[in-house]
Amino acid sequence: MKPKLLLHICCGPCATSVVLRLKEEYEVVGYFCNPNIAPTEEYYRRFAEVERLSALWHVLVDAPAYDHRRFLEAVQGMESEPEGGRRCQVCFAFRLNAAAAAAESHGCTVLATTLTIGRNKRADVINLLGRAACAQHGVTFLEADWKKKDGAKHSAELARELGMYRQNYCGCEFSVRPAGRNEPRRHETTKHTDP
């Protein structure tokens, strides 16, 4: 029997190649905890893609109620921090702590996150925060840098094949690029795959 792993999922496209890799060794349970995402419509658009992936690939996905206010309270005073700075670290820790608690309640012995597949996300920082969160909940953190070994490339290819909505900003209103550079990407050619 495979060990049970809770995978914190930041969005559908990032989850694609990570889910495929993890399903080889684990029983994967997805967890969509991203109160950082704004506006509300964007949150539900991203969640819809995760739900679609869940149905296609038979991976249970759980999600707490969306509460952007909690994120804003956590990063208060850090709104003007640069991307990848202190605000992002607080955001990562906030989500990983919630995921570690969820892993414990779901009976998962291992926690992983898709966050490190992002080309601008520092795996060393995320892995450190993941270990700290898991230490508080008696769960093992699976350290990874999913962008390596063509992980990010493979993820983008799978998202294109599946016709997934691919956002072009991290999630919070403070990560939005200047006007004219935030057009969302969507690839309309849809191919259903079942790993």
Topology at a glance:
Layout: E1 4-8, H1 12-23, E2 27-31, H2 40-57, E3 61-62, H3 68-74, H4 86-105, E4 110-113, H5 123-135, E5 140-141, H6 151-161, E6 165-166, E7 185-186
Parallel strand pairs: 1-2, 1-4, 2-3, 4-5
Antiparallel strand pairs: 6-7
Helix pairs in contact: 1-2, 1-6, 4-5
Compose a concise summary of this entry.
The chain is α/β, with parallel strands linked by helices. The protein has six helices and seven strands. It has a single domain (4-186), classed as HUPs (Rossmann fold, 3-Layer(aba) Sandwich), CATH 3.40.50.
What name does the CATH topology carry? Rossmann fold
Residue runs with pLDDT of under 50 for 5 or more positions: 180-195
Q: What's the pLDDT, averaged over the residues?
A: 91
Oligomer: single chain
> Number of DSSP helices?
6
The topology string of helices and strands comes to EHEHEHHEHEHEE
Q: How many strand units?
A: 7
The structural class is alpha/beta
Strand coverage percent: 5-15%
Number of domains: 1
CATH homologous superfamily title: HUPs
CATH class category label: Alpha Beta
Measured as a percent range, the helix fraction is 40-55%
Widest sheet, order of strands: 3-2-1-4-5
* Main sheet summary: 5 strands, parallel
CATH level-two architecture: 3-Layer(aba) Sandwich
Taking all Cα atoms into account, the compactness measure Rg is 16 Å
Terminal-residue CA separation = 18 Å
